[in-house]
Design goal:
By secondary structure, the chain is mainly β. It has five helices and twelve strands. The protein has one domain: hypothetical protein yedk fold (Alpha-Beta Complex). Strands 2-1-7-8-12 form a five-stranded antiparallel β-sheet, with no helix packed on it.
Length: 234
Amino acid sequence: MCGRFAITLPPEAVRQYFAFAERPNFPARYNIAPTQPIPVVTAKEHSHGLDRHFHLVRWGLWPSFVKDPREFPLIINARAEGIAAKPSFRNALKRRRWIAIADGFYEWRKPPDGVKAAKTPFLIRRRSGEPLAFAALGETWSDPNGGEVDTACIITTRANCLMSGVHDRMPVILEPENFSAWLDCDGVSAGEAERLLEPAAEKMLELVPVSTAVNRVANDDPSLQEPLGEAIHA
């Protein structure tokens, strides 16, 4: 699962990493929560190749068939397993594959059975300090009056060995050499793209214990990422 994440790197560093055209001044966010705006990368095919673009969209997918979002479950994550067969994701996997921009995400480890204690939050980030590229799906939902809302969800897969000590799921993290294949919905089929939905390499990430202050959505400042202990590596 991925229920909270962060994007705190300088905007220009993010732009260079993802190679999108715009120069947004997206403010640092340390505790992004569902239904809030999230930064994503999309792509359009042109005669000279694939152009990447930056957008802000709502975190929580509304498939086009939804009549009233108030009566539809909040979809912040999509399980990679069998994703092509699921009505909520099938068309987006073919036509609207996006990348959600992050540089860290949070997960909570349950206490051992029989132990009464709060869950322990961890910040998960690249050991290199580079951004994280979450595989995402997008939909533009239209209301009866013609208004449009761009929405997205993050794809998750089974946890790698490092993550499995905290949770059994993790977001799909794409490497730069796979960005074009994931974003190119005209040139790369859904089946080919689906093969990219694998757990991250074991040595890519580190787990940093952090304060339970991250539990509150209202908290959104650098103190949330201050380590409370040694980082855990594979």
